[in-house]
Amino acid sequence: MRLQEIMSTQVVTIGPDASARSAWTLMEREGIRHLPVMEDGRLVGVISERDLGGPKGGALRRGRKVHELMSAQTASAKPGTTLRQAANIMRGRLVGSLPVLEDGRLVGIVTATDVLEELGRGSTRPSARAQRQSMRMPPASARRAAARQVRTAKRSAKRAKRSRTSAAKSGAPDGEPAEITGRLSSTLGRHRRRRPDSPARAPLAKRLPRAQKRVAGRTEAPQTPAYIRSTGSVLDAADRDYLRRKLGRKLGKFAESIERTSVRVDDVNGPRGGTDKRCQIKVVLSGLPSVVVEEQHESVQAAMDRALARTERAVRRTLQRRRDQAIQPPRTAGSMPAYG
Fold first, then answer.
1. What is the pTM of this model?
2. What is the 3-state secondary structure (H, E, C) of 92-141?
3. C-alpha span between 9 and 106 (Å, rounded)
4. 57, 86, 114, 303: which sits with the fewest CB atoms below 10 Å from its CB?
5. What residue spans define the domains of the chain?
């Protein structure tokens, strides 16, 4: 198989005088890890996610240009290069991508992942894959869902092992149904039936009619409204559900003292990138000043998690201060200090 059959032809490029921060923003928006650097229609280098310092490389990228961080001595290939030849070039030059040139013109790009997938598959069938999106990463919501499935599978495996151990100790024969042994067993890959949330940890309500809105405490988390707002496409449906669940777990125990909660998530700098994802949480308390917390980060997920943790601590301190004031004994005339 040749590279022309698997290469990505819609190549995203950048100029050498562009800022490193704009290169990182372009990679995040397009979901790619390598950017060919073009000048006057000529390939002058390749800049990768690793060259830019990764998600925590904000300090490295600050004030730098692409030509300062890119790899100028870059390897390239031709459309007729075989997969095995491309793999040998990548291994010998220690690179993760190969720009594909034809008569000095950039016509495509392949990554190490593309080559290894085809070599591992051992496929020799011809395929027209000009529109292949092999360089794109799945969206954040899909990555979180995959991580949840892995955690669920690990928990299921642990429960299955404990169940088998308990059955062996009780003398139940192997393979006996759970109904006979009286113990609940689960197998790897079977999702656990989720227990209903307790009132103190249930997700906060999306919106409540005015007639049902709380006035001053004594209601549980499902009756506490949480209004979530965002600009543009910063949050998707999965992010909103995640926020509502985390609000219930962090603040549900204080629901009797909370009238409502509002969350605002926006992108401060837009396409310019940087530490620009802002999460602001406001908690309106009954008979106390509102708690307002704001956090900024390069990642929306990190900004939300940090703001939630700080909000929980701030609400706890505020309510604890009120309880401490309530239990202090009143000062009498005899206990007043005498001056004179």
1. 0.38
2. HHCCCEEEEEECCEEEEEEEHHHHHHHHHHCCCCCCCCCCCCCCCCCCHH
3. 9
4. 57
5. 3-121, 140-181, 210-327
Q: Which fold has domain 210-327?
A: Double Stranded RNA Binding Domain (3.30.160)
Token code pair at residue 195: 């227990």
How many Cβ atoms are within 10 Å of 46's Cβ, its own excluded?
A: 24
Q: Which residue's structure tokens are 């496929």?
A: 123
Closest CA to 115 of 148, 142, 161, 83: 83
CA angle 317, 322, 323 (to 5 degrees): 95
Find the length of the chain.
340
Q: Is there a contact between 100 and 77 (Cβ–Cβ < 8 Å)?
A: yes
Summarize pLDDT for 277-286 with one digit per residue, the tens: 889 999 988 8
Q: What fold characterizes domain 3-121?
A: CBS-domain (3.10.580)
Residue 36: what are its φ and ψ, rounded to 5°? -65, 140
Q: In one letter, which amino acid is 126? A: P
Q: How far apart are CA 50 and CA 234, in angstroms?
A: 25
Between residues 123 and 329, which one has the greater pLDDT? Answer: 329
CA distances from 133 to 98, 108, 109, 130, 186 (A): 16, 12, 11, 9, 38
